[in-house]
Design a protein that fits this description.
The structure holds two protein chains of two kinds. Chain A is built from ten helices and no strands. Chain A is mainly alpha-helical. Chain A has one domain. By secondary structure, chain B is mainly alpha-helical. Chain B has one domain. Chain B has 13 helices and no strands. In chain B, helix 6 runs antiparallel to helix 11. The radius of gyration of chain B is 24 Å and the shape is globular. The chains are: A mainly alpha, B mainly alpha.
């Protein structure tokens, strides 16, 4: 039952070319991060060459190779920003479509005229979203590996590949939160448009509003891969900083920074603790989607816009 | 004849606005933008209030001691609206794209497009009417957001903006409407050009990422000195003179970097809005004509995009199939 619902959903996404469009955007986004990384590498090489010449003309020794100061995976640091922005919106859209399409086409009404478990249906839908996101992120991982080979001109070592795998694994978990938000909001709202906008509202709150409350991050500061929270000298932030651990957008960036080694190192246990709220929110939203599907009135489908 | 045309365009515009009101889209969008903006402005205003109180205490003490020359306040209440304009820049773009997508998908999903096109309405009138209605929705959103932000500054920051500042705010407000309208056009164009409107929405979101994030980021990311934490030139043991000497070999690179950054519509909107709202300290003492001079390129870009908008929307509506094809939802 679960696999039937999941495979039907995947087929539907493929036939509507939604999957292809999402895949294309993700690959383009990863390639953009790679190109920026390549450009950065190239600039360092050229500046270093010029610096060696300049210092030699002044009779000074050549400086230390600056690449020793640059983390190997730093060329992908922009992905830490792209995933919570575009990635989350695409995940949200995939989740929204997987429920809203069944509503609009009357498929939900047809399916539940049969003796079908609602929990199985919900789990199937979640599995389809999880699979499509996993496939998309696998493609992004492949593009990232190619970028690393091109830029660093060496085959990535096993620890580097493991770090990349962990980063995309974490990203999958984070994006699942938004796919589930998309599903949940489509189930809560009878109108498709409201379901989509409501889900975007949740994305806005998680990505921008909560980090602003807990860490004083202005919207444009949230576009920075490194989280730089304000100090807690202000009374307001002394209170709100307590909620920082549940700000999953900040936790995602902090853990990503540790995995890609682009942030100052911290103890492993602290990093692992940061993953807990993301996993907890994903689990809570998955449970909420199952409950909503069980309670949803599918006889009132074809709700239009 | 011209009256009939105007009547049809206004009827479609009213339909667009009513659809947003009745489907509660406007309500949801207002809540989203107002909550986000109010949060941002209130947080900034809370700190501002204490700084303002410090300045007033200093001023009162100076006056009590008979000091004639009192330093003017370095505080600028308009700058507290920075968060509001940043939200419009980032979230406003997404919201406007979604509005454009909904304009197209609403008629397709509800199967009302063939009905509308069976009436004596041209695709140009449909595009003009929809754009006008969307402009009304966007104006409502930006006006409500700005009003909430200004009241928050007054109530929480204990400083109300004066008439001169209202004028500058109005200019930033108009730029915000144009900015969102352009993204509305992008959303409508990509949705109308796609057999499946959802795919069009994805393409528009991809464009949004490029314009709002990737292009402006290139300016910083590709700056030679920003390649390493702490600065590349510093890591190489080079001082300012060394940096200047080396950068002479990077003239073309710097030109390309600057041009890419300049291609970002979002950056131009940001520069103009920040100049009008005293965000940048160096602009605070300038008169309005001097401000215009400083941001003339941004004004030119905003106007170019604004001029292209009606053509893009019109083209999109003319090309879209009257009978929905391939739309499953």
């Amino acid at each position: 039952m679960i696999s039937t619902v999941a495979s039907q959903q995947l087929l539907s996404l493929r036939r509507q070319r939604v999957f292809l469009a999402a895949l294309g955007l993700f690959v383009a986004m990863t390639a953009a991060a790679g190109v920026l990384g390549w450009s950065s590498h190239n600039t360092i090489v050229r500046v270093y060459d010029q610096a060696v010449k300049l210092l030699a003309s002044q009779g000074k020794p050549a400086p230390a190779n600056p690449f020793l100061l640059k983390p190997e995976l730093s060329l992908l640091s922009n992905m830490i920003v792209y995933i919570p922005l575009l990635g989350a919106l695409l995940a949200l859209l995939l989740g929204h479509l997987s429920v809203a399409d069944d509503e609009s086409t009357g498929l939900g009404r047809l399916i539940f005229s049969r003796r079908i478990s609602r929990t199985g249906y919900a789990v199937g839908k979640i599995a389809a979203a999880a699979t499509s996101l996993a496939l998309i992120l696998l493609a992004a991982l492949a593009v990232s590996l190619v970028s690393l080979v091109v830029v660093n001109q060496t085959v990535p070592t096993l620890p580097v590949v493991t770090r990349l795998g962990l980063f995309y694994g974490l990203s999958w978990l984070y994006l699942m939160v938004f796919a589930l938000v998309g599903m949940g909001m489509a189930l809560v709202n009878r109108r498709r448009s409201l379901g989509l906008l409501g889900a975007m509202g949740v994305w806005l709150v998680i990505t921008f509003a909560i980090p602003q409350f807990t860490s004083g991050l202005r919207p444009t500061a949230s576009l920075n891969p490194i989280v730089d929270p304000v100090g807690t000298s202000q009374r307001f932030f002394q209170i709100t900083a307590v909620a920082r651990p549940i700000s999953i957008a900040e936790q995602y960036k902090a853990v990503s920074g540790q995995i890609l080694a682009t942030a100052p190192p911290e103890p492993l246990t602290q990093t692992l603790l940061r993953v807990v709220p993301i996993a907890a929110v994903a689990a809570a939203f998955a449970a909420a989607v199952i409950v909503l599907v069980r309670r949803h009135d599918f006889s009132r489908s074809s709700n239009g816009e | 004849m011209a009256n009939d045309k105007r009547h049809r365009i206004l009827a479609i515009a009213r339909h667009e606005y009513r659809a947003a009101v009745r489907s509660r889209i406007l309500e949801v969008l207002l809540v989203i933008l107002i909550v986000a903006t109010a949060a941002s402005v209130i947080i900034a205003s809370a700190e501002y209030a204490s700084r303002l109180a410090d300045y007033q205490a200093y001023k009162a003490a100076a006056e009590a001691n008979g000091i004639a020359q009192i330093a003017p306040s370095p505080l600028a209440p308009l700058s507290l609206l920075r968060g509001a304009f940043e939200y419009i820049e980032i979230i406003g773009g997404v919201i406007a794209i979604t509005l454009g997508y909904l304009t197209v998908s609403r008629e397709r999903v509800n199967r009302t497009l063939p009905l509308i096109m069976s009436r004596p309405v041209t695709s140009g009138e449909l595009a003009s009417g929809s754009l006008l209605g969307a402009l009304a929705v966007i104006t409502t959103l930006v006006a409500a957001t700005t009003a909430v932000a200004v009241v928050s500054v007054g109530l929480v920051g204990h400083d109300w903006i004066n008439l001169g500042q209202v004028g500058k705010l109005l200019l930033a407000f108009i730029a915000a409407i144009i900015y969102m309208a352009v993204f509305y056009g992008v959303g409508a164009y990509t949705a109308a050009s796609s057999r499946n409107t959802t795919n069009g929405l994805m393409v528009a979101l991809g464009l949004w990422l490029v314009v709002v994030l990737i292009l402006p980021q290139i300016g910083d990311t590709l700056d030679a000195d920003n390649q390493l934490p702490g600065g590349l030139f510093s890591a190489l043991g080079l001082g300012h003179d060394g940096e200047v000497q080396i950068l002479t070999h990077f003239a073309t690179y710097e030109t390309i970097r600057g041009s890419i950054e300049a291609a970002s519509f979002a950056k131009h909107f940001e520069r103009f809005a920040f100049a009008m709202t005293d965000v940048k300290e160096r602009f605070r003492t300038l008169s309005l004509p001097d401000l215009f001079l400083q941001v003339r390129f941004s004004i030119a870009w905003i106007l170019i995009y604004a001029a292209a908008l009606p053509f893009a929307v019109r083209h999109a509506f003319r090309e879209q199939p009257t009978i929905p094809q391939g739309e499953t939802s």
